[in-house]
Structure prediction request, 260 residues.
Amino acid sequence: MLSQKMEKVICEAQGNIAVVLKDLQKDQRIYEYREDTQMPSASIIKLLIMVEAMKQVAEGRFELEQKITIHPKDKVPHGVLTDLTTQSYTFLDLIMLMIIVSDNTATNVIINLLGFDHINQLAWTLGLKKTVLERKMMDTEAVKRGKQNKTTPGDMVLLLESIYRKKILKPELCELMLDIMKRQKDLAMLKRYLPEDLPVAHKTGNLLNLNHDIGIFYLPMHTYLLCVFIADAESNLKAKQLIGKISKCVYDHFQIEEAL
Prediction:
């Protein structure tokens, strides 16, 4: 049984673990483990920011090809834009950098443009009751003041499924978001032990001893959504390996189903 295999992997691991697995074709959650556990979101919160960005595009506040200037004061560590001298990017460029390589400078610029209130209002409107954006990326002073971005696997599954079902915005914008997520460059978690050519629309998050990954897997005859959060891990490497093992366990299960 899949649930027994999942539990065996989880029980042998160290850390605060939460998992949700949903068969999108059957519209059925087939495995849940502490899915309402609120944790620091790390870069998973960028999914919510992307949706609000696309929402404001739909409302006419921004255009995807609109040029945005990046100033030296905007730049923060751990990002592609930090080391580039180019000053102007399209709004779509910034969204893609925020998701594909999790660029923190791009994220902070987008937060400035959208506004904290609009992003958090979207979370509330969508019923993401345990999801909140309290600070920008790499804002250590805000962390010292107790500010933290938070979410749960259950909230993020609801958000990502809304994109997949094209319920959240116009179909073409939902397709664009999924296409961006399929270009994700961090393959060390959900895709760690899976075929390179397997299409997965996903987003990762990393902090010290904390790793998250949530994605939609497109198999030839099955589509499923898997979300794995791990906090207080023994190490980031151990957390990534564990997410990879859980993902491989799920993938093997659906491979068997497809062979039947």
User: Anything to note?
Assistant: The chain has a mean pLDDT of 96.
